[in-house]
Amino acid sequence: xxELLEYIQFVLAPQMITGLALGIAVVLVALGLTIIFGLLDxxxxxxxxxxxxxxxxxxxxxxxxxxxxxxxxxxxLIMVPIGYxxxxxxxxxxxxxxxxxxxxxxxTFGLGLVIEEALKIVFGPNxxxxxxxxxxxxxxxxxxxxIYRLFLIVVGAAIVAAVAIVIxxxxxxxxxxxxxxxxxxxxxxxxxxKQVFAGTFAFGxxxxxxxxxxxxxxxxxxxxxxxxxxxxxxTVVIVGGMGSIAGAVxxxxxxxxxxxxxxxxxxxxxxxxxxxGIMVLVLVIRPQGLFGRLGxx
Amino acid sequence: xxxxxxxxxSLLATTALTAPAIAADPIKIGVVTPLSGTYTPxxxxxxxxxxxxxxxxxxxxxxxxxxxxxxxxxxEANPSVAVQKAEKLFExxxxxxxxxxxxxxxxxxxxxxxxxxxxxxxxxxxxADSITGDKCSPNVFRVNARAGQQSAALAAWxxxxxxxxxxxxxxxxxxxxxxxxxxxxKAVEGLxxxxxxxxxxPLDSKDYTQYFGQLRQAKPEVLYTSVAGNDTVRxxxxxxxxxxxxxxxxxxxxGTVTSQNVSAIGVAAEGFGTxxxxxxxxxxxxxxxxxxxxxxxxxxDPDLYGADSYGLIYFxxxxxxxxxxxxxxxxxxxxxxxxxxxxxxxxxxxAGDHQAIQPMYVVRVTSGQFKIVxxxxxxxxxxxxxxxxx
Amino acid sequence: MHDGSVVQVKSRPxxxxxxxxxRASHVLVVLFVxxxxxxxxxGTAMGxxxxxxLATEALIFAGLALSVDILLGYTGLLSxxxxxxxxxxxxxxxxxxxxxxxxxxxxAAVLLVSLVVGFAAGxxxxxxxxxxxxxxTFGLAQVVAKAIYNTRALGASDGxxxxxxxxxxxxxxxxxxxxxxxxxxxxxxxxxxxxxxxxYLLDTPFGRVLIALRANERxxxxxxxxxxNARLAAYVIAAVVAALSGALYPxxxxxxxxxxxxxxxxxxxxxxxxxxxxxxxxxALYGGxxxxxLKSVVGSMTENHLIVIGLLFMAVVIFLPKGLMGLARPxxxxxxxxxxx
Lengths: 297, 390, 341
Prior knowledge:
The complex is a heterotrimer. Chain A has helices at about 1-40, 45-65, 70-95, 100-125, 145-170, 170-180, 185-190, 195-220, 225-240, 245-265, 270-285; strands spanning about 135-140, 145. Chain A contains eleven helices and two strands, in the order ααααββααααααα. Chain A has a two-stranded antiparallel sheet. Chain B is an alpha/beta fold. Chain B has two domains: about 25-145 and about 280-360, Response regulator (Rossmann fold); about 150-275, Response regulator (Rossmann fold, 3-Layer(aba) Sandwich), CATH 3.40.50.2300. Helices cover about 45% and strands about 20% of the residues of chain B. Chain B is globular and about 90 Å long. Chain C has helices spanning about 15-45, 50-75, 85-100, 105-125, 130-150, 180-205, 205-215, 225-255, 265-275, 280-300, 305-320, 325-340; strands at about 160, 165-170, 175, 255. A two-stranded antiparallel sheet of chain C has the order 1-4. Chain C has a two-stranded antiparallel sheet with strand order 2-3. In chain C, a hairpin with a 4-residue loop joins β2 and β3 (about 175). In chain C, α2 (about 50-75) packs antiparallel against α8, α2 packs across α10 and α4 (about 105-125) packs antiparallel against α8. The chains are: A mainly alpha, B alpha/beta, C mainly alpha. Chains in contact: A-B, A-C, B-C. The interface of B and C includes residues 36, 73, 84, 87 and 88 of B.
């Protein structure tokens, strides 16, 4: 009996908590992705690279003395005009072609390549790491947990809650949801649809950048870091339901828990195949994901 | 003018006309190395090392009076691209010699291409034992230390630090990762240590915390890891964040912590030990000169890849001078058994398997510097000759 | 009211636009083949090895691009994991050749394996479309790539070297796989045959169903055709084309490695098709050659070649959605169209 309790205390519980921290990280990255798809019907394959850009901007500004707390505000603000420009300048151009899904997928795929290379040229190929903003760890029932990870869980949850409130309970959110539901109707009601689209894309991208700032001390910063999360983020978005915030949260936390717990029993090699298997299963049984689409009932 | 003066003058004139013609034909060395992608930091060090040595050799008159010309191609850490670029260098630019491949897959494939093209290659980075072991090739030479040599040195030191210790192994899940873990495990178990667990994490894992449960349960005194690059940064910093690094002796493969990632790892790298063929702290005149020149040219410290690549040019120079030719068969003969001086000391190229024998150092990271804490002689570290092809 | 007169409606002959487009592609491919033969002749005359082999490699990867185009251009499905079949074909070919150095044995084995695997995977992949299809194909390729990466018997992460040079026996003439010009022509032949088969199939009623699927999938069943079978068939054909192309790779280079299944291989194929021209089939061939040349030239000039290619790709997606064939084909279509009347 004590062995079981010990196992739960020293192995299972810590595993679940770190799984939770990873889960919040994935949710933060997937959140922007699902909003962009839910509203714009655009699959942003460059999302991982925007995450990387956020991390690099934080690194550069942090190195010149800007404090971490300030970065949490500044970096997303910097990402907004970037995202806006990308949407108006690139995505809008191919938006009205009949093959929109494929074309935007290809376009953002190319954009991702270009951004990744640009980061390598500007910052060099070596790994860099900003210092942990809240160093130290606390001991809870014999298990050591870094304070920063707990901070992440709290902040991540707060951000998700904030986004959910903005989208569902504010007038701005209502406008966004209306434009997602029926573009033409919203336009005829006076909603500046083009600006709303660009703004939402910028918002999604800013979320990715924010995730980059928060995760840089844990996962370090290097030009190909965008690929770290992208497959997992897409899986979360698919399983949760494209465009659903609640879906992204639930799926994100669920899948990372499955990953964390499965690595206790099977070899880590199976980690990715398991995630893939979950995705295929969901697609086969319930293709619209766990929850519906943004704006739709 | 007297007759003698006229004769002397005309002789001088003719030599002045012909001399440049002889020196003009450069020796071309092709370099197929990753200049983009995840392995770029290694390719960068390889490039720096080769360029520095080439500059020095050319300034001193080149090889048998001919200047060395380096031609770089990006292999993108993909053996298909490496083979294509290697063939380009062999057939179009007609290089005399080729080097630069980083991962063992590329080295093996390019080695095969070199055999078919009748040229020689050398690797300064790949440390899979198979390259000079069961997959050896008469056209492939290796000047850097292979996995077996690294483990021999490290295992001896670990056994002295923590006799009969419990060791946990964490490697990246691919050939190099598994073979380095296997090599070290064999070496250290032979010296009395006990293995308490083994985990292979996928390459580019971002979160190693999922293995910490197992690690804690096993309660090891020593952790051996052969991750590299970003993975090392993440593993070590995450371990430190979780307080796992306390009371744990962390050691690893020579590519795990290098000058390219040590600053990103920061304080978490303190105390990390490895068996390696090079350290900037090696105390001899040649190394001091090398480190200074390298730092001046590149504003960065050399690591083992930079140092081994530097030494390669001198190896090739010695071989060509001995063979008095750049012809493949003659150079190969000259390379077998060749001894030459490098910043690491004297290296000998073993004829039986084309593997360089060199003194191995045990190095510990102290305040961001790679301090030498032990060494093992070349003969002790080298291990058996497993090559049966020639 | 009914005064018996019949209103004469001047009927115009029905112009089969799709048929003409297909024929335009055929014309371009014939030009391509002629160009290839000329290239081989020049190469042999100059005693060249590298450029002929590079061109052969370009053709092999063009075959992969062809398979991507079958899915993307006709069924409208973007596969981000077609390298799975390419790599599968390469590995099966390598393993067979190491035991039995016979070209035909290898090709037959690859054909069989790809039919089976393509069918099985197709059953899973074809339950979804759009971005889901892209991600499922991506995931499948990743999983299999990982499996091979960790299989010692297949060389694990180092791949397999030591594939011998094989004689390609056509009865009247035998070409060795290391003969630069000879094997180039063999590869050209194989790829053109794959193109011809694909082109033929896509010009049949079956092919028209696929095009209908791309245009408006929901309506197709109302016309009496089964979408599921059509899509599955297209997927299997694409798999076989990719695998047979991949089978040629170890014959050329003497080795295989897991990188052949990685996303970069699939991604390059997509870039090739887009630059060449989606839905033209010929675009895959021309695109393959152009991309190889571009990478080689730009790659030697700078190590930042990926950014150049990425920017070019984005420019093509935005400004030249029909790819390079979109510039060439309309001219040819006009010529052919005039003939049809």
